[in-house]
Structures
1.
Amino acid sequence: MRRISMFGATGSIGESTFDLLMRQGGAAAFHTVALTGGRNVARLAEMARALRAEVAVTAYDDCLPDLRTALAGSGIAAIAGPQALLEAADRPADWIMSAIVGAAGLAPGFHALRHGTTLALANKESLVTAGPLLMAEAARHGARILPVDSEHSAIFQALVGEDIAAVERIVLTASGGALRDWPLDRLARATVAEALAHPNWAMGQRITIDSASMFNKALEVIETREYFGVAPDQIEVIIHPESLIHSMVGYRDGAMMAHLGAADMRHAIGYALNWPERADLPVARLDFAALGQLTFRAPDEARYPALRLAREVMATRGLAGAAFNAAKEIALDHFIGGGIGFADMAAVVDATLAALSHRNSLGNAPMGLEDVLAMDHLARQEAGIAARAIG
Ligand code: NDP
Ligand code: MG
């Protein structure tokens, strides 16, 4: 029986993964090693019982008593804290979903690769902060990373049977998020609730706001470079409001391979779960005659400074990705907390990168995970200072 684990089980990607696991046979078809969550221990315990997991892990020590209570009589072990997440990652499994949100997802995924697992990677922050380390670790241990981000799953699928050397360009599609049609002067005053009204995708709170600011697409541009090894100038972004083309690969002969499907993450999760095979998936089928048309427009860099920042990060490389992601996470915290405005998030990230490039060598290649985590820590402090100055 295939042994599986899931990090971030209680989130949006976690719920979709759980849904597919249950549809594909649940505890009768999979041996579940570990399930992890954060504060939602009631749901974590439900999932752990349904899949008869060996262990359930909450990221927070203060949540452990509630998790224990919720698992009473089940025989499922309950543990807590960042170290417990690593312990769970060290338990051998054949397939592991990495779906914690933020840089907190990096260390568990990194640990899991040491055991030669197949890591289904939704946590794009892992590749943005530590791409070269992660890819090297996977290669060293014969582990495999399969993309779960819909764009990267689409690119991965459009590359099947092809030679990466024949690729001319990769076109990442972007919905443009909740505020894509707002006039620029109104955009700066957008509220959290307004940024959360995503037109096409139902996702976690943080990635939904990142979609409106295009910080999500900025992370994905970097993720594309790290995962597929193409040059930054081979990566384009196009706004495609319908979100039905999930991304495209353009080849030297002018051919474009596009991946289309409903805006449902179970496409990409199901592909990673069943790869290299395809399984029946409970996603809506496209009716092209009813759709009528698909539309595209170029992203405006004045509206989306995050895209320019991603180009700068790729030019710097080294630890710049770790600094960029950490600054973005802090800026987002301050926006959600009401301390800064929507447009200030890019200003905070910009100021953080500027401050760090004066004081440190952002371009230095990280020697290990510790270097990435140290830069993550430093950039969080610097971004906090910038956010308080701007707010
Ligand atoms: P959610 O916010 O919905 O879920 C996050 C998960 O991580 C929850 O299980 C949460 O626990 C847990 N968690 C939160 N903070 C921590 C922490 N500090 N340590 C350990 N666990 C923590 O996120 P999403 O599912 O939307 O996104 C997960 C990842 O997948 C992100 O990297 C995102 O960018 C990526 N992704 C998501 C897509 C989507 O459609 N949602 C699409 C493509 C990529 P709890 O809720 O119990 O507190
Ligand atoms: Mg995506």
Note: The longest helix spans residues 369-390.
2.
Amino acid sequence: MRFEQTFMNFILQHQEKHNRTYHFLILMDALISAAKHIQHYYLTGMLRGNLGLTGTVNVQGEHAMGIDHIAEEISLHYLRSSGRVIHAVSEESEEMILMDAEGGRYFVYFDPLDGSSNVSHGLPVGFLFGVAKRNLDGPEDGHLRPGKDYIAAGMFVIPTGTFTLALKESGTWRFHIDDTMNFVKPIGVILPEDSKTWEFSFNEANRCSFDQRVQTWIAEEERKYAFRYLGSLAGDFHRILSNGGIFMYPAIVSHPNPEKNRPHGKLRLMYEAAVVAFMCHEAGGDAVDEAGIPILEIQPKEHHQRTALYVGSKPLVDEIAQILRG
Ligand code: AHG
Ligand code: MN
Ligand code: MN
């Protein structure tokens, strides 16, 4: 029989090697449990035709809870019971969520179900999270942290059973769920340097509404690469991490219907853009916003703040960043 190293064993070794406490292990156990639970719900809900879109009413006349709210409830349950989280910020809740954990030491920023347009097809969605740690020695600090302060960030691609985790200054790894429902077989992820596998990923329908400089750059570059877009950040970014290239969600500045402009981009900084930027950085890549500023440097002013995002292989991100800064 052949056995692979489990995620929990991997993380335990990591903590011991770096002389760290077990608190992070307990937090990771909560996140893993939440992701497995959401994946189970996603798969079985799909089979029962029970993925309830928000605002729908079921046959009993009750309001069905959307899968994104269910995913949030599941996540909050596990995060709360970990007893390690001070505040959580979720895409699904307007306000920051106080966890009341005495001795809590982490801030968790998460999107329990990202890529909602894929839900009714049962296609990949993401559970994205970033973790920052409270300043345990000095004065109490707030939860509005730039990505460079995160100690870890990760994503589950649901329901494919893949999990990617980046640990600060320690790299990015990918795990797969096996038949025993354990995440196993850590594989270090480094963005490939050879551009022959690189891909471009963005919503082509928005292209004519991007800044002119971005449109020109895309026109110059695109023929060199394959184009892939699923409309689910976790799935699309998963490909970029493996194959290299760039994922973009630029600002939308010249839409024929001005109401559809998104001058600050679409994606949320704290639990979408900074999460993938952190994983990409640890895998040797980079990420910038519409002004060419590194995503990990942006100090959030509020927790649902949006940003444009260019993330992927360093040479490509550097190129577009230079154009955007100019
Ligand atoms: P949401 O948070 O509403 O589920 O949005 C999904 C995100 C992200 O997963 C994806 O990269 C992007 O929005 C897709 O947006 P478009 O449909 O505009 O391309
Ligand atoms: Mn989202
Ligand atoms: Mn969401």
Note: Residues 282 and 319 are 19 Å apart (CA to CA).
3.
Amino acid sequence: MTFDLAARLAARRAEHLFRQRPLLESPQGPQVRVDGQPLLAFCSNDYLGLASHPEVVRALLDGAERWGVGGGASHLVIGHSQPHHVLEEALAEFTGRPRALLFSTGYMANLAAVTALVGQGDTVLEDRLNHASLLDAGLLSAARFSRYRHNDAASLASRLDKASGNTLVVTDGVFSMDGDLADLPALAATAKARGAWLMVDDAHGFGALGASGGGIVEHFGLGLEEVPVLVGTLGKAFGTAGAFVAGSAELIETLVQFARPYIYTTSQPPAVACASLKSLELLRTEGWRREHLAALIARFRAGAAELGLTLMDSPTPIQPLLIGDSARAVELSRLLRERGILVGAIRPPTVPAGTARLRVTLSAAHSVAQVERLLDALGECQALLPPVEQ
Ligand code: PMP
């Protein structure tokens, strides 16, 4: 026996699931250069337009001059430097929680929180549409793992009735492929009534939602009581990299002591923490970014509805257009690209069969004119395809 990787890759191609990795030859921003082509991009998670902000770049450079490049070691050895510490304190204060703990990626923060909190004999219940990192975390934890129907508190309740041991309910705050919000008030009440803890991964909401950017918990006015475990990531609205878990002092100390993805990895470069601190400052002081983004979302939704396109129930910068058929979604994405516009086609197995979509994401860095250009192009491309049979 040998590893027949060629056959495996060929099968992937035959199923039309082979993924291409576009090469970005410019900084993040609305106008990018990809594989030699200038394009107007609607597929980044840089929701507030901070990834290439000169002040954030400057904070990174100053941080590198002062602190060097590498984290040097894990946090518990000698990798926990002052910028990490200051950022953790600032994130704790911003989220109104006693403590926050910094991670190098959201994927690791999710693995860490779930596996440190539940294990054999416990239960982890997850929304069916949760991000892959949360599903992986549930499987890795060795707790009894089950998925409830998307955003359905009744489905969660019936699983909670059968749960044993410590029980953790885990949900995305904003679902990454649909853009819809978790029904946190209902999920929190259901979990709390049965003594379970709720963990929310607000990767796509933190910084972008809520009057001051506090994310989905601010949007719904929920605190530590309802959401004991809050995860936010810094690679999206913050425009930098990394993630954090925020919660009680006991929760954070438990992660420091027991979370293997925290203990056994080199800390992120301290200069990145300096950049994230600057992003936090901009996000707090420049509320116009969220206001402009909200206006773009409204403009896009109105225009797409006028074109007869199928929007999803999303009040967030993730504005997928439901196409259905994978080949049609890919063809629309290709036609848009011919017109200088980059929007990704998302197909099964990333999304359920028959729900292929164009995943449009908007950013405060876009102008109204750029969103209108996208709408014009969508109208043109749609007209080139045969009508969908009802
Ligand atoms: N959670 C969600 C909902 C995400 O969409 C992502 C990344 N796309 C992550 C976690 C992982 O975060 P990171 O990219 O920082 O690893």
Note: Residues 105-107, 110, 131, 133, 172, 176, 201, 203-204, 233, 235, 243 surround 4'-deoxy-4'-aminopyridoxal-5'-phosphate (CB under 6 Å).
